[in-house]
Amino acid sequence: MDANAGPLPTFPVGAYTDPAHFEAEMRAIFARSWVLAGFSHDLAEAGDARPVTVAGAPVLLVRGEAGELRAFHNLCRHRAARLVAEPCAKARAFACPYHGWT
Predict the structure, then answer these.
(1) Does residue 40 register a pLDDT over 90?
(2) What are phi and psi of 19, to 5 degrees?
(3) What average pLDDT score do residues 1-10 get?
(4) Quick one: which of 43, 70, 82, 90 could link to 48 by a disulfide (CB 3.0–4.6 Å)?
(5) Which domains does the chain have, with CATH numbers?
(6) In what order do the strands lie in the sheet with 69-73?
(7) Closest CA to 72 of 94, 98, 97, 90
(8) How much is the mean pLDDT over the chain?
(9) Which DSSP state fits 8?
(10) Looking at the whole model, is its pTM more than 0.90?
């Protein structure tokens, strides 16, 4: 290491606090990459469901009847109402709170 090399470059403070910079990183990095959404042991049984947020989007993680893990948008397609607010167990269907559609 050269002690006379001078200061190392750093990020400007705005890179950590600017909402526009945050949105740009969300679009460019997190929305295009695999990210950890949860742990399989949190969805141990068929029908277990857990709402999470991934890259700013509401996602519903579900353990299917055959044991597979699935992820869905946690929104009704019609009114964008949140489908599941809290983790639940042994769910057989999810209903829109606005219309009751499943």
Answers:
(1) yes
(2) -60, -35
(3) 78
(4) 43
(5) 37-102 (2.102.10.10)
(6) 49-54, 57-63, 69-73
(7) 94
(8) 90
(9) P
(10) no
Query: Would the CA dihedral through 67, 50, 96, 57 be positive or negative?
Result: negative
Length of the chain: 102
Neighbours of 60 (CB within 10 A): 19
pLDDT at 51 over 90: yes
- Of the pLDDT bands very low, low, confident and very high (cuts 50, 70, 90), residue 1 is low
Residue 43 class from Cβ within 10 Å (0-12 exposed, 13-18 middle, 19+ buried)?
Answer: buried
CA 24 – CA 55 distance, rounded (Å) = 11
What pLDDT does 13 receive?
87
Query: Contact, 93 vs 47, CB < 8 A?
Result: no
Residue written as token pair 């001078």: 6
On whether the CB atoms of residues 56 and 26 are closer than 8 A, the answer is yes
The candidate with the shortest Cα–Cα distance to 70, out of 95, 37, 96, 33, is 37
CA–CA distance, 31 with 55 (Å, rounded to integer): 6
Residue whose entry in the numeric block shows the structure tokens 């809290």: 86
